[in-house]
Predict the 3D structure of the following.
Amino acid sequence: MSPAAQDTALSPFLAAASGKRIAHTPVWFMRQAGRSLPEYRAIRGEGSILDAIKQPRLAADITLQPVTRYGVDAAVLYSDIVVPAHAVGFGIDVAPGTGPVAEQPFRVHADLQRLREFEPETDTPYVLETVRMLASELKVPLLAFAGAPFTVGSYLVEGKPSRDHLITKQMMTTEPQLWHDLMQRLAQHAIASLRSQLDAGASAYQLFDSWAGNLTQDQYRDAVLPHSAHVISELKNSHPHAPSIHFGVGCDHLLELMHSAGSTVIGLDWRTSISDARMRLGKDTIVQGNLDPSLVQSDVKTALAGADAVLADNANHPGHIFNLGHGVTPGVNPDVLAAVVQHVHERTNS
């Protein structure tokens, strides 16, 4: 066993992900690396996030910053969900202030030629170098992550961030074979990407289906769930000891369906209470979440009151990973997040 593996084997994060508590409720934040941190802005540089990701030492340092600043119980790789699609040459970038954009969106079957299968060792060796650096330097587990096929696919089809995903839904409905071909290719991307990160030293992973909440239950069940479940199943077969987290925004109506995809942990946004999730999914369900991100935009007192409400909702269940109900926004005061981490640790110390 490597030193990094020894350090993380009994971590609060990995314990909670298996339904146990060994020290305190673990905390990490989505989008914890960067954006709100002055030390991030000092080293990030200009241009696309994809340029920063291609610099392993820089990406590793950015990943480490919130661990040092906040004392969180897990690091999440500094990366982006469109890295595989970008690396294979589809033609997608992340425009500062806008998000993923593609000048030539995915619209016809021939576009699959621009979205060949992803080969991490060849296409993104810089990501694997970053992961290996972090695995040797971190004292907490490293979270790998990937975008779920639907969310990545929505960016490729729309060509930009969308509120309604009309073009995406039209393809799902009128060209189901094309849609499923796209989903199968993006599932291969996610599987290969996550597998390579875990092989390089990550301890767990999160599958982000950020925009699945825009779908109806029928749309999700028929056009999305089989592909997300395939990703999780393949990773469970190849890395059975690596916990998986499945997360989406505005997915209360999809909660049972998302849970059926088979992840170890179900991520909750701030709209779904932990107690309600366990009532619907089972009392032993392991959850991640779910402080309203708006509460950490305020002062420490407000944020800590919100954190206490989340802890009360969890009712001392050992299978709880504390997080926001979505990502950290740029305007958050880092001192507020640091106070939340300390408070959760102290309130739940066993």
The longest strand covers residues 142-147. The chain is about 50% helix and 10% strand. Residues 1-7 have pLDDT under 50 and may be disordered.
